[in-house]
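Researcher: Go.
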Amino acid sequence: MALRKILTYPAEELKHFSEPVKNIDGGIDQLVTDLVDTMYHAPGVGLAAPQVGITERIIVVDVDAAEDPGKKLVKLINPVIVEAEGSVIWEEGCLSVVDYTAEVKRANRILVRAWTTEEKEIEIEAEEFFAVALQHEIDHLDGKLFIDRISRLKRDLYRRKVKKWIRDGVPMEPKKSATGM
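Model: Structure:
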């Protein structure tokens, strides 16, 4: 089990756009395994490579992690949302956004196209929490955090809170959030 350090806001690396994976090899397979181990250890229900400082388009999601880890685990390389419909408001949190949750508007149903570690192209239909979790993790690949999708006022209040924590020497360790993403 290789655990990776989860970066937390305001780490600059979280703002970078991730590059597509060009070659699915043993290094990518190991990174995916590390992401899964780190996600479960955190504990969370999703993790993207940028959250551990790797700017490649890789995510892992297990919306049933608390109840039955591994049963609903998806490991996606170069995921792309190809269809989205409806909307839902969901209380989101993030392993990279310490001690904060907020309601975020997302598509209620999505279709994602991606590659597996076995180099197979797949499509996944997702609704509600699964759709929210996938959108949240794919946002990380584009350098976005869920706090980029909330009002400027709420985002500024959180930024001020983080600046105070940094000034006061409060550790910025990932904590399980409402959704643990």
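Model: The mean pLDDT is 94.
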